[in-house]
Design a protein that fits this description.
The complex is a heterodimer of chains A (165) and B (392). Chain A is an alpha+beta fold. In chain A, 32% of the residues lie in helices and 21% in strands. Chain A contains 5 helices and 6 strands. In chain A, the strands form 2 sheets. Chain A has a 4-stranded antiparallel sheet. In chain A, a hairpin with a 2-residue loop joins strand 5 (145-146) and strand 6. In chain A, helix 2 (20-27) crosses helix 3. The radius of gyration of chain A is 21 Å and the shape is extended. The two termini of chain A are 40 Å apart. Chain B is 42% helix and 13% strand. Chain B has helices at 11-14, 20-29, 48-59, 72-86, 101-113, 130-136, 156-162, 185-198, 254-267, 273-285, 287-310, 335-346, 372-391; strands at 35-36, 96-99, 119-124, 140-145, 167-173, 201-205, 230-235, 248-251, 323-324, 348-349, 351-352, 364-367. Chain B has a 7-stranded mixed sheet with strand order 2-8-7-6-5-3-4, with helices on both faces. A 3-stranded antiparallel sheet of chain B has the order 9-12-11. In chain B, strands 1-10 form a two-stranded parallel sheet. In chain B, helix 6 links the parallel strand 3 and strand 4. The longest helix of chain B has 24 residues, at 287-310. Chain B is globular. The chains are: A alpha+beta (165), B alpha/beta (392). Chain A binds chain B through residues 7, 11, 15, 18, 22, 25-28, 155, 158, 160-165, and chain B through 19, 21, 24-25, 28-29, 34, 36, 38-41, 43, 45, 127-129, 177, 295, 299-300, 302-303, 306-307, 349, 351, 370, 372, 376.
Chain lengths: 165, 392
């Protein structure tokens, strides 16, 4: 992949709302070339989407709960962990799913409105899958950092003097 | 009859003009919602591993003086860094001095080499401290103007005209504050030829060396036969976003560094110990942070230069540091009036070029060490201001 493409991806990863014109001038490219690059990267699935990282704790009347669930599973012949993983990630409650090394096999991030909703997901949907051997659910108490972004940061405050040599 | 109050201030200090930067600082700090493009320092915070290393040094009880010249470990690391990056050879025993910022290194260098009346050629536009520092050290500053015609780089012929038998040193800064100009190797060789011919020393301020964007940086001390007549000044402020740590260094011929160490020993004792521990970590494990910041500065530079050109201001593409130096002559205003009115009407602070010397008149310094969001708004406000001026 070209150096400029990687630079473009890094810019978008940090701020998906950057305007094409701004990106073009930052990368010293013309606007058409930048658009072309973005389309190419979308086509190649290097860019999968443009999302917004929301700090839901800031949204009044929104009581969301996040849990991390460690799952031990029995892999199936021929498809290994992939088949059971698919059965799990298709649930809309599942926000992220990773195959892990170590004490357990799958790590799932689940979001729900209440703890009860997540408990029901675990007991009714997840634990009852044939391949699932055991689950351990950890509720997230506070988010400090997610996807490289620090929540509640006061870094926006510029502590520098207005004019300096 | 009223008698004139006696002044106890030394004449040479009394005669120093306060920095023009100060006046703009006073003006800007009284206003609200100002976007400042007037800062000469990174907007990034010091990389976390450096802060952590400094905490840890305190926890381990490193709270006493270090050797006058700085922690030996740090001097070794500086030597190693200069060897790897710029192929320079300095003995950490007696050719490296750790100072309280690059500013102190400049002050000590001048005091170590100047006899009263010795002349120092200062290339302007220049960092605001050079000329006063020469005067405070008893020297006579001789300014030479670098102009936009030559991309703000001094021409050998101009310099030769300024040389006299009293010329003791030349001060250069590449990448330059405020123009961002970077001297090429060939241009440095021209200067070196003059230095050898007329036997003077070069004080090379390379504090922005790590922030060179389009070409590989060449240290002045790496030019053939120049190591023995160059005092290299650098530090951690700009590349590692460590301005408040006040940590710099000077390297050069043994004789000069030992003389500088003597002054340093009797005046400062040593640079702050916890900052030295932070600097050690910066050199050992901070390169990736520097590269990340550098990429970001380059992108912002491209954005700002294009925005300035689009609004009709002529602006050369600076090769380094984090400043652009556009001309504001098309507005028919002096740089001082432009900066002041822009601040009052659009709440954008820039520094009038005149404070960096006569040849800076007609230009303003805009620092792009500010977030893209701020830069975007600043450029929109500035565009409005410039367009209104040009319609009138």
């Amino acid at each position: 992949m070209e150096e400029k493409e990687i630079e473009l991806l890094k810019l978008l990863e940090k701020n998906g709302r950057l305007e094409v014109e701004t990106i073009a001038s930052m990368l010293d490219l013309d606007v058409d070339k930048t658009k072309e690059m973005m389309e190419k990267l979308e086509k190649e699935s290097a860019i999968l989407g443009y999302s917004t990282l929301v700090n839901w704790a800031k949204v009044l009347e929104y009581d969301g709960v996040t849990a991390m669930i460690d799952v031990k599973v029995t892999p199936t012949r021929g498809t290994g962990f992939d088949k059971v993983a698919e059965r799990i990630y298709r649930f809309p409650e599942v926000k992220a799913l990773y195959l892990m090394s170590g004490a357990y096999d799958l790590s799932i991030s689940v979001e729900g409105k209440t703890m009860m909703e997540i408990s029901r997901f675990v007991s009714d949907k997840l634990s009852t899958l044939d391949s699932v051997v055991s689950t351990t659910t950890h509720f997230v108490l506070k988010k400090y950092k997610h996807d490289g972004i620090i929540f509640e940061e006061d870094d926006d405050q510029d502590r520098r003097m207005m004019v300096s040599p | 009859m009223k008698t004139q109050e006696k002044s106890y201030v030394a004449h040479h200090v009394d005669q120093l003009k306060p920095s023009g930067i100060r006046r703009f600082f006073d003006l800007a700090s009284k206003m609200e919602n100002v976007i400042s493009l007037g800062v000469g320092e990174p907007d990034f915070v010091t990389p976390w591993n450096v802060i952590e290393a400094s905490y840890h040094s305190l926890e381990r009880g490193f709270t006493s003086y270090t050797a006058n010249a700085g922690l030996f470990e740090l001097r070794q690391e500086i030597s190693k860094f200069l060897k790897t990056e710029y192929e320079l050879e300095y003995n950490p025993e007696n050719q490296v001095l750790v100072t309280v910022g690059a500013s102190q290194a400049i002050d000590v260098a001048l005091r170590a080499i100047l006899n009263p009346g010795d002349e120092v050629i200062v290339v302007e536009p220049s960092f605001v401290s050079y000329v006063p520092a020469v005067r405070l050290a008893g020297g006579v500053p001789i300014t030479v103007n670098a102009t936009e015609e030559y991309a703000f780089k001094i021409q050998a012929s101009q310099m030769e005209a300024a040389i006299t038998p009293r010329t003791k040193a030349l001060m250069i800064c590449s990448p330059n504050n405020p123009t961002g100009a970077v001297l090429s190797k060939q241009e440095m060789e021209e200067i070196a030829r003059l230095a050898k011919k007329h036997d003077f020393i070069v004080i090379s301020d390379e504090i922005y060396a790590d922030l060179t964007y389009d070409e590989t940086f060449t240290s002045f001390a790496a030019i053939k036969e120049m190591a023995q007549r160059t005092i290299l000044i650098s530090g951690f402020s700009k590349a590692f976003a460590m301005t408040g740590w006040r940590l710099g260094y000077a390297t050069g011929p043994k004789q000069i560094i030992e003389a500088m160490t003597k002054i340093h020993q009797y005046t400062i004792m040593c640079a702050p110990t916890m900052a030295q521990h932070g600097a050690l970590e910066a050199l050992r494990n901070g390169r990736s942070s520097v590269l990340e910041m550098k990429t970001s500065y380059r992108q912002r530079r491209n954005f700002v230069v294009k925005a300035l050109k689009d609004m009709g201001l002529s602006c050369h593409l600076p090769g380094g540091a984090f400043y652009v130096f556009p001309s504001v002559t098309s507005t028919g205003m002096s740089s001082e009036d432009f900066a002041e009115e822009l601040l009052q009407k659009q709440q954008v602070a820039v520094v009038p070029g005149g404070v960096f010397g006569e040849s800076g008149e007609g230009y303003v310094r805009c620092s792009y060490a500010t977030s893209m969001k701020q830069l975007d708004t600043a450029m929109k406000r500035m565009r409005k201001f410039v367009e209104e001026k040009q319609i009138q």
